[in-house]
Amino acid sequence: MKHFDAVVVGAGFSGLYMLHRLREQGLTVRVFEAGTDVGGVWYWNRYPGARCDVESVYYNYTFSEELIQEWTWTSRYPDQPSILRYLNHVADRFHLRSDIQFNTRVKSAHYDEPTGRWLVSTDDGQTVSATYFISGVGCLSSSNTPDFKGLSGFTGEHYHTGTWPHQPVDFSGKRVGVIGTGSSGIQAIPVIAEQAKHVYVFQRTPQYTTPAQNHPYDDNYIRETKANFPAIKAKLLQSWAGTNIRPAPDRVTLNDSPEERQRRYEAAWEEGGWMNTGYKDLMTSVEANEKLCDFVRGKIRSLVKDPQTADRLMPTYVFGSKRPVLDTNYFATYNRDNVTLVDVKAAPIVEITPGGLRTAQAEYGLDTIVFATGYDAITGPLFRIDIRGRNGVALKDKWEDGRQIRTYLGIANAGFPNFFMITGPQSPSVLTNMVLSIEQHVEWISDCIRHLRENAIGSIEATPQSDADWSQHVRTVADSTLFPRGESWYNGANIKGKTMPFPIYVGGVPAYREICTKVAANGYEGFVLTPVPAETV
Ligand code: NAP
Questions:
Q1: pLDDT, tens digit, for every residue of 80-114?
Q2: What is the rounded average pLDDT of the residues 382-394?
Q3: Could you tell me if the CB of 7 is within 6 A of ligand 1?
Q4: Whether residue 181 has its Cβ less than 6 Å from ligand 1
Q5: Distances (CA, A) of 425 to 253, 295, 412, 454
Q6: EC number(s) in its UniProt entry (predicted)?
Q7: Which atom of ligand 1 lies at the shortest distance from residue 181's CA?
């Protein structure tokens, strides 16, 4: 059986950088990737309008000054083709492809106690062994198509935004149904509407979405950003989400007059992005949160001409308890004659028919259905792999199908020696700039592995107490905020039968980094380090 020092799953932002760092240390590494090329979510998400909602110049690796200097982003928010080009450039520049096996899905990874190795099996029938097993599967890579009655009999075409074909889909002259109004649907709908004969949007929950105000970058901005990158990175690391470089918000919403609040909300709306209003209590005060919700609802009313459609687009949940969305022309799209909003909360989808879709109220003739129905998020990508630790215990069982996630730092697990998760559950992950969080995890894991190897330590494993304490801490921090108040993919509410306690650490990037750094500095506090048996040293 072929042996590698490390097996890494996935060749997205996580897997590529992990491979690079481990190879620098001289490790043998094999990356398995299900796609035919690099890119991870940016390889699969090719739907019309796909774009990142973190600004381009902050959404890239920062580990290499040369890479920063040689790559130039062209617009404020990068579109999918640009990000994919960037990741291809990274793969070429650091000669990564030779250690990646494409078209290969990891089916299982079992810890073999007698040898202390991971046995990793793939869908092409091979099994390899590895000292370290590292997941770079991401949080949103397991797409969810709800089990609608009749789908297999649909005579038109259907697509999921998360597994979009590589060839452009032609919507011209077509009656298109889009199911779902999360980030993917909200980005795709305005673009599809420009081409299709008619678009029916099947909306279950109306969303707060604010304008991206995307625009091309000018040369001066790019020059300044490149010249000041170390300072920019330092500021990103100080910000709660790692997504902007402005000072931390310090104002209390209700301390300002209604006029001052309105002025700040308007300025943030015009500037675009994550509604940077300067208020620090958005996610801790229901009253403060409701003020912003009111403002956005007012905007919807002013942007959508038909009052009934505007009513149906009014969100009512706590802003931020579902992932906020940035859009381009979303609400204005409902003023088009060829767009119809259908409320499927009021009249749920009953079935897909051969010629379209039937709700409890009406039937819609469709040529194409776009499922923008999201993901079995956070735990889904890990549970697709049969990961088993000591005594053959499956990760899925340890976490009780997600009802009881227990990790240490969102990186490690008691009972699973030498298994590392990049941006795993209970780390800041999806509430932060993913690239920055990925870099931090990859660097922490590679420093850890260096420490193990330099000190003849055969395995590292979180203690059950560390698991329990970290999980409790994640819950306590989340419960002091409004984040867990919504029904969203954050807590599994989008998937029938799935429930999870809020699985993201919301203490912010600076606090989290400090905790991880301290754990390492204290000799990997909270872990058991087991020396390599004497006869094998
Ligand atoms: P999502 O946010 O989970 O949205 C899925 C949509 O489908 C929701 O509107 C959901 O309604 C609806 N839906 C699900 N099942 C349904 C059913 N059975 N019947 C009717 N409607 C149903 O998924 P997403 O839009 O793909 O986004 C997921 C995440 O990916 C985002 O939140 C973001 O983190 C990331 N993403 C980012 C970008 C970006 O960077 N700009 C772009 C795309 C995705 P409910 O709300 O009622 O559940």
A1: 999 999 999 999 999 999 999 999 999 999 999 99
A2: 98
A3: no
A4: yes
A5: 31, 33, 10, 29
A6: 1.14.13.92
A7: 9
**Do residue 389 and residue 451 come from a single domain?**
yes
Contact (CB, 8 A) for 20 and 94: yes
165: which 2 tokens? Answer: 């074909």
467 in a domain, yes or no? yes
Both tokens of 243, joined, read: 């997504």
Q: How far apart are CA 181 and CA 323, in angstroms?
A: 11
- Domain range for residue 507? 3-142+377-536
The pick from 41, 160, 183, 214 for probing ligand 1's pocket by mutation, whose C-beta has the most ligand atoms within 8 angstroms, reads 183
**Domains identified in the chain, total number:** 2
Of the candidates 294, 292, 296, the one whose C-alpha atom is nearest the C-alpha of residue 278 is 292
Residue 502 pLDDT grade (very low, low, confident, very high; cuts 50, 70, 90)? very high
Mean pLDDT of 346-353: 98
Q: Tokens 């998760």 identify what position? A: 421
Q: Left (φ > 0), alpha (ψ -120 to 50) or beta: where does 526 sit? A: left
- Residue 475 in this model has a pLDDT that exceeds 90: yes
- Both 481 and 385 in one domain: the answer is yes
Residue reference for tokens 């958005």: 282
Residue 223 lies in a domain: yes
Residue 270 domain-assigned (yes or no): no
Q: Are residues 185 and 79 located together in one domain of the fold?
A: no
Q: Are 94 and 170 within one domain?
A: no
Ligand 1 centroid vs 179 CA: distance in angstroms? 9
**Smallest Cα–Cα separation from 68: which of 76, 58, 78, 81?**
58
3-state SS of 89-125 is HHHHHCCCHHHEECCCCEEEEEEECCCCEEEEEECCC
**DSSP-based three-state secondary structure for 491:** helix
Q: How far is the CA of 327 from the centre of ligand 1 (A)?
A: 14
Domain final residue pick, 328, 353, 371: 371
- Measured CA to CA, the distance from residue 298 to residue 293 in angstroms comes to 9
- Identify which of 364, 342, 344, 341 has the alpha carbon closest to the alpha carbon of residue 353: 364
Same domain, 92 and 167: no
- 471/504 Cα distance (integer angstroms): 10
- Which residues does residue 4 pair with via DSSP β-bridges, in sequence order? 130
Phi/psi of residue 357, nearest 5 degrees = -145, 140
Task: Say whether both 302 and 427 belong to one domain.
Answer: no
pLDDT of residue 534: 73
- Domain with 162 in it: what CATH number? 3.50.50.60
